[in-house]
Amino acid sequence: MLPALRSSGSSLRFLALAAVLWMAALVVFLTAFKVMDLDVWWHIKAGQLMRSTGGLPHTDPFAYTRAGQPYLASHGWLAELVLSIVYDLAGPTGLILLRTLIALAIAGVLAVIASPLWFGAGAAALAVNAIRPGLMDRPQLFTFLLFAVSVFLALRYIDADALAADCSRRHRTRICAGFVGLQVLWVNLHGAACILGLIVFGALACQRLTDHLRGKSDRREIVQLVGVGVLLMVALLAAPSTYHNVTYVWNLLTDRTAQFIREWEPRTWGPYLRDLGPLWIAAVGVVAWTRRAPVFSALLLLAVGLLSRQAFRHEMPFVIAATSVFLWQLRHQPRWAAVMQWLERRPLRAWVAALCLLLAVSVFIWRSYWSFTQRDQLQGYGAFAPAAGAADFLDRERIDGRMFNAYDVGGYLLFRGRPVFVDGRNVDYGFAFMERLVRAAQEPGVWNAIESDYGIDYAVLSYDAFADADPLPYVGILEQRPDWALVYLDDWTAVYLKNMPEHRPTIDRLRYDVLTPAGVQRGTALQIDAKRLPALERELTRAAQELGSIKAKLLLARLYLASGFLADAQRLVDAAAAAQPGSYRPIELQAAIHVHAQRWREAAEAYERVIDLAGPIAEEINYAVLADVFERAGLTRRAAQFRAKAGD
């Protein structure tokens, strides 16, 4: 009997280890996406500036529209130092590895809350996948980790009831010291985001006060908790920006500029309940079932849940809190424990249960990852900076002066050393400025006033991010202005120069007269008079030379295909596929070339690849066309499937 027990124990320990390694592999996979956050660049630049000057900026060093005004965004100074050091040492790869390490730490903290560990590993991987939209390379990364640790400390504090009185007191004193140390670190990494730690501690204090009133804790503990609470409040000031940490967050929560920033707006109820509804049900259900520390659990879920309805970015702490509460309550649920003990006595069944859980989690994460990364080819390591090509162009052509830039590209442009009109620090600019900026995107009168007030010489505009807008923001106005010329165009950005003596040589050499951002974005560039096709071909040929861009390449390929020049079309399709290897669009055009040449089997194979690569982001597919192609290829069963879809 004893050897069997030892064998069972060894098998379960190996299962726990295997599950943790599996979880780690999933976390490494789902965090392996390119640096793509728009704000990371100004955070890095701020850290580099602090390291070079030896202090925090006092006046705005980045935006000429705020020259001489106080620099307000020092709340994440320590995180910015870390990000800048990591970037300078290892570039985008270093930032991705830092992101991965933090995500692994979050997953580890969540997993050890659970029992058994293999179940916690699966739940933790799901939680990290759920917070993936917030795993951007900026100070909030540290907030997610420190929040997870705070919840973990609170749960350990409550679990100290199981220890002897003396051990319990010493254990809780150490945890209280941990709360204070965590708060001091947190306030320097991400300013008053450490208020989340106060929420956790406040929920814990309310639980212990309730226990005290019920005779389950002594007065000394309550006095200690009050003292620690005071220290945590004082710790809010333990940073170079002192009380400005609090006022900055107050501004974030009350300033009306939040309405212009998607992450500071709540999602509509449909997507919110689709993604977080199951977690709400699971967490609330298990609290009602187990009823361990119900005051702490309910207050934590309610407080962070309310925050999650104030802004999308606050959904991530809710996921962490709800997952922690769910796993902890389940761990202390007698019926759950009985089921787990039953499995542990039958290691094979435990292995089967763990394998089924982890396989299901893996499939879900795989699909989620590809859905997220496919559109902009974010898989793997590196950086996706939509304004990089425009910045290279400005440097190459030595364009200087007063720049107007779209809000979303300001962070990268200031990282490249250009004084910007605006960047991602919405609160710093104020509501009046931001409202005027937004109105200028569609109102010529407002744009004209901005151009006059600030003496704008050139403009860097993002258009791909606003593909559904008609007309495209700012672009629609400048296209109607004869004194402005489009001189640069890639898949994401456009550069316009004002017709001034210093810009005239560049305009004469590089002006686009036929091609427009809207024409490239929507594929309407080919819908022009035949007399203008030679000019369009020349301009598409120039735009197609931009590295990494494929829209102009594919448009030119379509032009050649329509004219019967299959070899030229094929050359451009190959170039587009090399520029964006994971994109389905070059393969879609490759299939069209095969159809034109009546190579039906090759066309069918290409369309299968299109369907596999495009996944959920594919535009509406003409299944009737696919049915005809597959029928001609002799694939009658597959053709029937597409014909059935076409009839739905």
Short characterization:
It is globular, with a radius of gyration of 29 Å.
Throw out a few tags for this protein.
Rossmann fold, 65% helix, 648 residues, single chain, globular, mainly alpha
Structure, explained:
The protein has about 650 residues and is mainly alpha-helical. Among the domains are: about 390-510, Rossmann fold, CATH 3.40.50; about 525-645, Tetratricopeptide repeat domain (Serine Threonine Protein Phosphatase 5, Tetratricopeptide repeat, Alpha Horseshoe), CATH 1.25.40.10. About 65% of the residues lie in helices and about 5% in strands. It has 29 helices and four strands. It has helices spanning about 1-30, 40-55, 75-115, 115-130, 140-160, 165-190, 195-215, 220-235, 245-255, 270-290, 295-310, 315-330, 335-345, 345-375, 390-395, 410-415, 425-430, 430-440, 445-455, 475-480, 505-510, 515-520, 535-545, 550-560, 565-580, 585-595, 600-615, 625-630, 635-645; strands at about 405, 460, 485-490, 495-500. It is globular, with a radius of gyration of 29 Å.
Total number of beta strands: 4
Beta-strand share of residues: under 5%
Give Rg in angstroms: 29 Å
Which parts are unreliable, with pLDDT below 50 for 5 consecutive residues or more? Answer: 1-6
CATH topology of the domain at 388-511: Rossmann fold
Largest sheet: 4 strands, mixed
Number of helices: 29
CATH architecture of the domain at 388-511: 3-Layer(aba) Sandwich
- As a percent range, the share of helical residues equals 55-70%
- Report the mean per-residue pLDDT as an integer: 93
Shape descriptor? globular
Structural class by secondary-structure content: mainly alpha
Strand order of the largest sheet: 1-2-4-3
Q: In the CATH hierarchy, what is the class of the domain at 388-511?
A: Alpha Beta
CA-to-CA gap between the ends? 62 Å
